[in-house]
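Query structure, 264 tokens:
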């Protein structure tokens, strides 16, 4: 089995290849793998590079042993305005993930919150450790999910459970995620990458073109008409950056205090 580690000092995403699969790891542990625009661009770039790599049939996406990701980088967003997002559409870097051809499986150990949960849901499968926690806590920052949380969670779990988690920000367990249909398999703590790699290796041994087209077809079934919902969600997400509550929510998080929302 050959393995080549691609890691340089300060890389926000690293990966290694072995036995027909790649293990791609988010690598900003100091900020709990917060998903900066740079990190998402690099992740999409790597997944597209792997698409072109004939030695690879499928990938596993992990955040490491303690957490998957705490979501989008709040520091990067806190001072932004609705107008600046409308003008620059910085979050469009996320769009490149939708055109990844080969299957990629999220292996979630620890928490996957906000954009971390949305990133996992945007992948093709989720293998979760039994103590993994998922959640869309954006409401506590004075914003809402913006990378598909309102759309993908609702499609999988239905309106009633999705409303609960999106409007309260309460986290939910791997078992609840499995009941809601967003998790492919729940495994013992510490085993998520191993199980995701086993599934990725099975897929990698299958005929590649059939896999690509089958993935495309399943995504079409699951995500038909998703595009319009995602655009609607993103535009509402940007509009919340015109509110005082967004400034208060994010500043409170960064200053480690409780927010005082005014509803404005
Ligand atoms: N962003 C930036 N920094 C973060 C962060 C984040 N999301 N989460 C944690 N950090 C930083 C903390 O500020 C702290 O930094 P220092 O104080 O050391 O400088 C460091 O990471 C360690 O954090 P904690 O001390 O809080 O660590 P704990 O282990 O005690 O707690 C936690 C971990 C995950 C429970 C906690 O850090 C937390 O609640 N984090 C925020 C979770 C959250 O609210 N996530 C949602 C973010 S909003 C879109 C695409 C994506 C999105 C939106 C739109 N489009 C395509 C349009 C996504 C939005 C979001 O995800």
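Result returned for the query:
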């Amino acid at each position: 089995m050959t393995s080549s580690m691609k890691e340089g000092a300060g890389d926000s995403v690293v990966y290694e290849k072995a036995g027909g699969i790649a293990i791609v790891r988010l690598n900003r542990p100091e900020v709990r793998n917060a998903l900066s625009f740079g990190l998402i661009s690099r992740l999409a770039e790597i997944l597209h590079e792997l698409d072109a790599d004939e030695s690879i049939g499928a990938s596993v996406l992990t955040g490491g042993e303690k957490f998957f990701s705490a979501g989008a980088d709040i520091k990067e967003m806190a001072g932004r305005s609705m107008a600046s997002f409308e003008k620059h559409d910085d979050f469009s870097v996320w769009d490149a993930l939708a055109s990844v051809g080969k299957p990629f499986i999220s292996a979630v150990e620890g928490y996957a919150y906000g954009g971390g949960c949305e990133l996992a849901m945007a992948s093709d499968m989720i293998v979760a450790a039994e103590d993994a926690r998922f959640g869309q806590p954006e409401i506590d920052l004075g914003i809402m999910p913006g990378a598909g949380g309102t759309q993908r969670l609702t499609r999988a779990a239905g309106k009633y459970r999705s409303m609960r988690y999106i409007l309260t920000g309460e986290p939910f367990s791997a078992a609840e995620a499995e009941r809601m249909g967003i998790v492919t398999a729940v495994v013992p703590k510490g085993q998520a990458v191993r199980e995701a790699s086993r599934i990725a290796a099975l897929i990698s041994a299958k005929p590649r073109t059939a896999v690509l087209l089958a993935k495309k077809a399943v995504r079409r079934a699951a995500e038909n008409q998703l595009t319009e919902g995602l655009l609607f969600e993103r535009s509402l997400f940007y509009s919340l950056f015109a509110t005082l509550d967004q400034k208060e929510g994010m500043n409170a998080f960064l200053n480690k205090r409780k927010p005082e929302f005014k509803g404005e």
